[in-house]
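Agenda item 2: FE2/S2 (inorganic) cluster complex prediction
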Amino acid sequence: MSYYQHHIFFCLNQRSGGEACCADHGAQAAFDHCKSRVKAAGLNGPGGVRVNKAGCLDRCAGGPVAVVYPEATWYTFVDNSDIDEIVELHLKQGKVVERLLLAPEIGR
Ligand code: FES
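Presented output:
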């Protein structure tokens, strides 16, 4: 059994020079919101969910991005209600949120 049931990583990378990066698209706010929702739902901790910061995940063109393991499900999102849906459906119920999936061809 895994130490965490789900592990979600948010890219918080900031770039200078106008290059695409998740930090320019609300990544920190989404990370903070996810962390507080996971905690409020009592999902955090061993056997539950861990919300982590990450550097560039090299899929910047689709930013902001987050990835959930162990499924390796990649998401992009716009606002807090998208994060709420990922927490409620995926992190709590184990169901993929199809409408927020990052297209497979999106890279840097
Ligand atoms: S800056 Fe977020 S994936 Fe590269």
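Discussion summary: The mean pLDDT is 96.
Owner for follow-up: CH.
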